[in-house]
Design brief:
The structure holds three protein chains of three kinds. Chain A has one domain (2-79): Phosphoribosylformylglycinamidine synthase subunit PurS (Mth169, Chain: A, 2-Layer Sandwich). Helices cover 35% and strands 29% of the residues of chain A. Chain A is built from two helices and three strands, in the order βαβαβ. Chain A is elongated. Chain A starts with a strand and ends with a strand. Chain B is of the alpha+beta class. Chain B is built from 25 helices and 28 strands. In chain B, helix 8 (138-156) links the parallel strand 4 and strand 5. In chain B, helix 7 packs parallel to helix 8 (138-156) and helix 18 packs parallel to helix 19. By secondary structure, chain C is of the alpha/beta class. Chain C has a single domain, classed as Rossmann fold, CATH 3.40.50.880. Chain C contains five helices and eleven strands. Chain C has helices at residues 14-25, 67-77, 87-94, 151-159, 218-228, and strands at residues 3-7, 30-33, 44-47, 82-85, 101-103, 111-119, 135-142, 146-148, 163-167, 187-191, 197-200. In chain C, the strands form two sheets. Chain C has a nine-stranded mixed sheet, sandwiched between helices. In chain C, strands 5-8 form a two-stranded antiparallel ribbon. In chain C, helix 1 crosses helix 5. Classes of the chains: A alpha+beta, B alpha+beta, C alpha/beta. Chain B binds chain C through residues 147, 150-151, 154-157, 239-242, 244-245, 332-333, 416-425, 428, 430, 439, 554-555, and chain C through 9-10, 12-13, 15-16, 19-20, 49-51, 53-56, 109-113, 139, 141, 143, 203, 205-206, 211-213. Chain C: Part of the FGAM synthase complex composed of 1 PurL, 1 PurQ and 2 PurS subunits.
């Protein structure tokens, strides 16, 4: 079983890297890019088949380590 | 059908003649793994086949040299039982393909070379060459390389204290990234690579092996064409965190008495490290490749032997030490595996799950590799630029401002502020001066370090250019008060199969050799990077010289910062007005022409000895060597560093431009409050000395001209690079 | 007066701060490996700069979960002073001992240079040897020093006088130009409510003798010596 975790900055937190990418995309001539936010994608291989248990384990991982909840949100996707 | 087709041979970079030699040595057709091993061992990068003949002519000995070229790094005695260990190495091709990782792994590799010898790295430097600023790739490459160097060095906690950066269109398709590391070791605890002791365990430590950079060493020896941008996957990825752990673990192990020999796995990875250790020790090796820690599934013996995964070391331990050594690597959470043993066969036997996957004789590969005496042509001499032929186009102060704000001379602060140059707490002279100085920890001694080369001189006259690179390193070390001890050379040239290019290499070696002998400044380590060209266009020949000198007491040294109280500026050395290949000619007249300034090695030594004496006797605390841009630029750099202005005199006769902007060698500017003593000392040393100006105020005022406020000059000098780098992304 | 310096894998200013403590306080500190679970008897805990765990994931995040950090948090809560420098500040934040977050510098680059900053309070054991409002020069060397906290937290920090250092120009003006990394309110260092836990991005251990071209960092160690000896 796989868990896919997306960690993104909360709205309202300045994202200097996203801003730089946004600027670069404009420089490359991509018109119509309104905003860019950068985040992290983390893939975790898990043993077992209990999706709910997996979800709660990964949630704990996010709270304890993977995300800094002061500035970041996370989003968990369990792929059986 | 054989797996070794002509195409396979060609794709491994072996010529027909070389393959015939392979068949002779093997006595049979090699398998693919064996062919791959020949290919990397005989690549230019590992075998120095085009350059050996000439490298052998370089002087490598002095009473203070503990280890010259041939080991992972050179070692010199710096007194009190301590040694400095250093080397410079190129990572040009990988940095062009992937600037961040290419530069980062270059820095990682050179640090490994140094700590393999038992030294703790204490200073990093980088000699960088990029294409023209207006070339569409330059900005991206520069920013990636700088970030990569910082990313690795900063994380390692080794200060990056110096280096140089040039721009020139000849590097448009082939940048140069030369990284140098200086380390400190106990002189009686240096580690070497010669394996010994039949039956002793061969141990692998560090990161796991993946498919990184397979064929990196052969890539670094082939010319680029536009298709090589497709080669991206063969670039290695650096992991400075692991290397930091590896450094600490190795130094911890080295403090015990368990290591027989150690070698880092750099270019050509396990192949070159195991062959070099065995060849130097005159022993055989049996490797159990299935025991190598692997990061990826399904790896083959071929891939394991050729992988260039970073942050790995190969060691031979004393028998019975495996467990104690493993405990150290366990503490640092690094892989540790016994992957073989030494034998008396003088052969490399590769085992794969109990079966022989390759079996090669060691000496013919490692020592009897091809050596070429490539045909070469001498570079035609150019005429000297007659100073009288150069007309003044604008006020000198305006010329000064133009030069100081040009890509050639503008401040490199934007670069070095991205490097941690203070970690370890011993950086005494920070970047931006002549040589950087790092204190030898817990002593009053200091190591002065610098990298130098003026490629446009080398192109115009390889012999004089080679001399000049060594002489400038000597001057930069002298200018802080250090005694120059030894150099490392990083020879970056084009395709040696072209006689014109080979002639540049030969000429530069001659010039370097002459200068080293005259200045008592031997070569103790080095690296050669050839085939630096794209679509047939060679780079400017660039023999980058890394110099190391010793300050007996960091309390007695000079910096370039002008102080108002040291009012009198004196130029030591002789000016004849050499404008050939000068920064003036390039920027103001837009041409690179003429013969470069000749190098008078006797004068270099005489003036250098005088300058060190003046600093040692405390007569001079402010000193700067005169190089790119000439006298006025040297004075201006001193003014900016100290934030003190100066009045500058003009010569009574002759060309003002040649006086102010000529790049004559063997000159320094010193500032003193006791001009008589300095002038007297110069006279007794038979050195020409002239008062060229006086410190004070907030502007540089050239005789007969309006003052140029330092603030204006600073804006031009500091502004160029940040402005350039913040322009729209290409 | 005996300090303990915690060494994480990837710490690289541990020796520098060890030297500074020894030089300014006269006693060599304990060096404590992160895998220990107990602290030696100590008057001060120092979390040094560096790249613990390579700064992978987030600076300080993995170090904050090292075994020794349970003992550090317990000791801090029981009143042992803690000084976190650079990566140490990041670890203090990740372990919840100080509020907020340290994000990538505003211009995304690693910055290593001398920086001027204003001492906002001398009412801490770390800064008693400075003057209120004094402008000091201490180098920084970081990639992620852009201090962020929500409005309420910032308000509380400001209201309680817990902002200890603020990036300023040479005259002490708090300007945007002087804000090297984009920190909210130019914050360079803060203390906890008890004023016993101090995290700062600048490196005081790098300016403790004239050969360093500055000695402003030395006063921080002198302050601590006076308070804790």
């Amino acid at each position: 079983m796989k868990a896919r975790v997306h960690v993104t900055l909360k709205n309202g937190v300045l994202d200097p890297q996203g801003k730089a990418v946004h600027h670069a995309l404009q420089g490359l001539g991509f018109a119509g890019v309104e905003d860019v936010r950068q985040g992290k994608f983390i893939e975790i291989e898990l043993e077992g088949t209990d999706v709910e248990k997996a979800r709660s384990d990964v949630k704990e991982m996010c709270e304890k380590l993977l995300a800094n909840t002061v500035i970041e949100n996370y989003d968990i996707d369990i792929v059986a | 059908m054989s797996e070794i087709t002509p195409d396979v041979i060609k794709s491994h970079g072996l010529t027909d003649d070389e393959y015939k030699l392979v068949l002779d040595i093997m006595g049979r057709e090699p398998n693919l793994t064996e062919l791959g091993i020949f290919s990397v061992m005989w690549s230019e990068h590992c075998s120095y086949k085009s350059s050996k003949k000439w490298l052998k002519t370089l002087p490598t000995k002095a009473p203070w040299v503990i280890q010259g070229p041939g080991e992972n790094a050179g070692v010199i005695d710096i007194g009190h039982g301590q040694a400095a260990v250093f080397k410079m190495e190129s990572h040009n091709h990988p940095s062009f393909i992937e600037p961040y990782q290419g530069a980062a792994t270059g820095v990682g590799g050179i640090m490994r070379d140094v700590f393999t010898m038992g030294a703790r790295p204490v200073a990093n430097l980088n000699a960088l060459r990029f294409g023209a600023p207006e070339h569409p790739k330059t900005r991206h490459l520069l920013s990636g390389v700088v970030e990569g160097i910082g990313g690795y060095g900063n994380c390692m906690g080794v200060p990056t204290v110096g280096g140089e950066t040039n721009f020139h269109p000849s590097y448009n398709g082939n940048i140069l990234v030369n990284a140098m590391t200086v380390g400190l070791a106990d002189a009686n605890n240096i580690f070497y690579s010669a394996a010994a002791g039949v039956g002793n365990p061969v141990v692998y430590v560090g990161s796991k092996t993946g498919r990184d950079g397979i064929h990196g060493a052969t890539m670094a020896s082939a010319e680029f064409d536009d298709a090589s941008e497709e080669k991206r996957p063969t670039v290695q990825v650096g992991d400075p965190f692991t290397e930091k752990l590896l450094l600490e673990a190795c130094l911890e192990l080295m403090a015990t008495d368990m290591i027989v020999a150690i070698q880092d796995m750099g270019a050509a990875g396990l192949t070159s490290s195991s062959f070099e250790m065995a060849s130097k020790g005159g022993v055989g090796v049996e490797l159990w490749l299935d025991k190598v820690p692997m990061r990826e599934e399904g790896m083959t013996p071929y891939e394991l032997m050729l992988s260039e995964s970073q942050e790995r070391m190969l060691m031979v331990l004393k028998p019975g030490c495996e467990d104690a050594a493993k405990a150290i690597f366990d503490k640092w959470e690094l892989d540790f595996a016994v992957i073989g043993k030494l034998t008396d066969s003088k052969r490399m036997t590769l085992m794969w799950h109990g079966e022989v996957a390759g079996d090669l004789p060691i000496d013919p590969l490692a020592e009897a590799s091809p050596e070429y005496d490539r045909p070469w042509e001498e570079t035609p001499k150019q005429d000297r630029i007659d100073p009288a032929s150069i007309e003044q186009k604008m006020p000198h102060s305006e010329t000064l401002k133009t030069l100081m704000g040009s890509a050639d001379l503008a401040s490199r602060r934007w670069i070095w502020e991205q490097y941690d140059h203070m970690v370890m707490g011993d950086t005494i002279v920070r970047p931006g001066g002549d040589a950087a100085v790092v204190r030898v920890h817990d002593t009053h001694k200091g190591l002065a370090v610098t990298t130098d080369c003026t490629p446009r001189y080398v192109k115009a006259d390889p012999v004089e250019g080679g001399k000049q690179a060594v002489a400038e390193a000597y001057r930069n070390l002298t200018a802080v008060g250090a005694k120059p001890l030894a150099i490392t050379d990083n020879m970056n040239f084009g395709n040696p199969e072209r006689p014109r290019i080979m002639g540049q290499f030969v000429g530069a070696c001659k010039g370097i050799g002459e200068a080293c002998i005259a200045l008592d400044f031997p070569v103790v380590s080095g690296n050669v990077s050839l085939y630096n060209e794209t679509n047939g266009e060679g780079i400017l020949p660039t023999p980058a010289i890394g110099g190391v000198g010793l300050l007996a007491n960091v309390g007695r040294m000079a910096t370039i910062s002008l102080k108002a109280k040291d009012a009198v500026l004196i130029m030591l050395g002789t000016s004849t007005g050499e404008l050939g290949q000068s920064v003036y000619l390039k920027n103001i007249e837009n041409r690179e022409a003429g013969s470069p300034p000749p190098v008078d090695l006797d004068a270099e030594k005489r003036v250098g000895t005088l300058v060190r004496g003046l600093i040692e006797s405390n007569l001079v605390r402010t000193c700067h060597d005169v190089s790119d841009g000439g006298l006025l630029v040297a004075i201006a750099e001193m003014c900016l560093a100290g934030n003190v202005g100066a009045d500058v005199h003009l010569p009574e006769q002759g060309s003002e431009i040649a006086w102010l902007f000529g790049e004559d060698q063997a000159r320094y500017v010193v500032a003193t409050r006791d001009p008589d003593s300095v002038l007297n000392a110069a006279a007794s040393a038979n050195v020409n000395a002239v008062i060229v100006g006086h410190a004070g105020g907030t502007a540089i005022t050239i005789e007969g001209e309006d003052p140029l406020e330092l603030a204006d000059l600073r804006k031009a000098h500091e502004g160029w690079m940040p402005n350039y780098m913040s322009a729209t992304i290409n | 007066m005996k300090a303990a310096v915690i060494v994480f894998p990837g710490s690289n200013c541990d020796r520098d701060v060890q030297v500074a403590l020894q030089k300014r306080m006269g006693t060599a500190p304990h060096m404590v490996w992160h895998r220990e679970t107990d602290l030696p008897k100590t008057d001060l805990i120092v979390l040094p700069g560096g790249f613990s765990y390579g700064d992978y994931l987030r600076c300080g995040a993995m170090a904050a979960n090292s075994p020794i950090m349970r003992a550090v948090v317990a000791a801090a809560k029981a009143g042992t002073p803690v000084l976190g420098i650079c990566n140490g500040f990041q670890i203090l934040i990740e372990s919840g001992l100080l509020p907020g977050a340290l994000m990538r510098n505003r211009d995304l680059k690693f910055i290593c240079k001398d920086v001027t900053m204003r001492v906002e309070t001398t009412d801490t054991i770390f800064t008693s040897h400075y003057n209120n409002g004094e402008v000091i020069t201490i180098p920084v060397a970081h990639h992620d020093g852009n201090y962020f906290a929500d409005n309420e937290t910032v308000k509380r920090l400001e209201g309680d006088g817990r902002v200890v250092l603020r990036y300023s120009d040479a005259e002490g003006n708090i300007t945007d130009d002087a804000n090297i990394n984009g920190s909210v309110n130019n914050i360079a260092g803060i203390v906890d409510e008890e004023r016993r836990i101090f995290g700062l991005m600048p490196h005081p251990e790098r300016v403790i003798e004239p050969l360093h071209r500055g000695t402003h960092g030395a006063y921080m160690f002198d302050s601590l010596l006076e308070a804790l000896a």
